[in-house]
Automatic annotation (TrEMBL):
Coiled-coil ranges per UniProt: none
Occurrences of domain MIP18 family-like (ranges): 30-99
Pfam families according to UniProt: FeS_assembly_P
Transmembrane segments: none
Domain of life: Bacteria
Name this protein carries in UniProt: Iron-sulfur cluster assembly protein
Native source species: Acidiphilium acidophilum (Thiobacillus acidophilus)
InterPro entries given in the database record: FSCA_dom_sf, MIP18-like
Basic and acidic residues bias spans: 1-13
Location of the region described as Disordered in the Swiss-Prot/TrEMBL record: 1-25
Signal peptide as annotated in the record: none
Composition skew (Low complexity), residue ranges: 14-25
Source organism phylogeny: Bacteria, Pseudomonadati, Pseudomonadota, Alphaproteobacteria, Acetobacterales
Gene3D superfamilies from the UniProt entry: Fe-S cluster assembly (FSCA)
Length: 272
C-alpha cells in the first residue's frame, strides 16, 4: 500500500513539474513573440509577426530559443533577409534569460549562407562580398530614415486632421509633443514616430545634433508652416511605396503558402 502511494505521489509530483515547465515555456514563448513583434521588415516598416513571417518559436533549453521564419518569395533580397534575421537574433538575445538564439530562414535561395552567417555573427558584407559594399549599419540607417519619414507623415496628417494648425505643429517641441493630449490613434502614431525620432545617432542621424523641435527633416532642418504641405507631398511617396509593397508581399505570401493571413498565429512550441 505504501509503495503504491509512494508511486502515485511521485507520478503526481512529476505531472505537476511538467505542468509548471509547460507554463514556464508558454510565458517564455510569449515574451519572445512580444520581442519579435518589435522587429520590422526594413522596407515595409511592419512587424515580422504581423506580416506572418514567423512560423515557429521553440524553447529548446532553459536559456536557448530557436526561431524559424519565411519570406514571401524564394528570391527576396539578400540584404533585407539578412537584416531581418540579424535583428531577430539581436532582439531575442536581448532577453535576460536567453544565452543562445538560433534563427532559421526557410525556403530562400540564400538560406544556407544567411543561416550560417547569422549563426556565426558575421556582417552582411562578409557573407555577400560581391554586393554593393553596404554593411548592415548602412542598410539599417537607410531604411530607418525612410521609416522616420513615413511615420512622421502619418502623425502630421493626423494632427492636421485633428485641427492643429501648421504654425503650431511646426513650432511644437519634443517635450510638448510627448505631453500633447491625443486620441487613441494619435497616441499610437506619436509613439511610433518618437521611436524613430529618438533613435541613436549611429543608426539615424538627424542633422548635426538633436533639434528641440519635434518635427524636422531627415537632415535635421526644422519644418516651416508655409511649406508643410509641399513637404508632406514630397514624403508621401515613401508611404505609398511601402503600402503598395506591403500589399504585394501579403499577396505573394498567401499565394506561396495557402492559408497564410497577416498576423497569423505561428507554430509556437515549448521545449523539445
Amino acid at each position: 500500500m505504501n509503495a503504491r502511494h509512494d508511486a502515485e505521489g511521485h507520478e503526481a509530483a512529476g505531472n505537476e513539474a511538467m505542468g509548471n515547465e509547460a507554463t514556464g515555456n508558454e510565458a517564455r514563448i510569449a515574451e519572445v513573440r512580444a520581442t519579435l513583434d518589435r522587429v520590422t521588415d526594413p522596407e515595409l516598416d511592419e512587424s515580422v509577426v504581423d506580416l506572418g513571417f514567423i512560423t515557429a518559436i521553440t524553447v529548446t533549453a532553459p536559456d536557448e530559443v530557436d526561431v524559424a521564419f519565411r519570406l514571401p518569395t524564394y528570391w527576396c533580397a539578400a540584404n533585407f533577409s539578412y537584416l531581418m534575421a540579424s535583428d531577430m537574433r539581436e532582439a531575442v538575445l536581448g532577453l535576460s534569460w536567453v544565452r543562445r538564439a538560433v534563427i532559421h530562414l526557410d525556403d530562400h535561395m540564400y538560406v544556407e549562407a544567411i543561416n550560417e552567417g547569422i549563426a556565426q555573427g558575421k556582417d552582411f558584407t562578409e557573407v555577400f562580398p560581391a554586393g554593393d559594399g553596404q554593411d548592415l549599419s548602412a542598410i539599417r540607417r537607410n531604411f530607418a530614415l525612410k521609416s522616420f519619414e513615413r511615420r512622421q507623415e502619418m502623425l502630421l496628417r493626423h494632427l492636421l486632421a485633428a485641427g492643429h494648425p501648421p504654425e503650431t505643429i511646426a513650432a511644437i517641441s519634443l517635450a510638448a509633443l510627448e505631453a500633447l493630449k491625443l486620441d487613441a490613434e494619435g497616441t499610437v502614431l506619436r509613439t511610433r514616430y518618437l521611436e524613430r525620432r529618438h533613435w541613436p545617432q549611429d543608426v539615424m542621424t538627424v542633422g548635426e545634433g538633436v533639434s528641440p523641435f519635434a518635427f524636422v527633416t531627415r537632415d535635421g532642418e526644422r519644418l516651416m508652416p508655409e511649406t508643410l504641405g509641399i513637404y508632406l507631398r514630397h514624403i508621401r511617396r515613401i508611404g505609398l511605396n511601402a503600402e503598395f509593397n506591403g500589399a504585394l508581399c501579403r499577396g505573394l505570401l498567401a499565394s506561396r503558402y495557402p492559408g497564410t493571413t497577416p498576423a497569423a498565429t505561428p507554430d509556437f512550441i515549448g521545449a523539445c
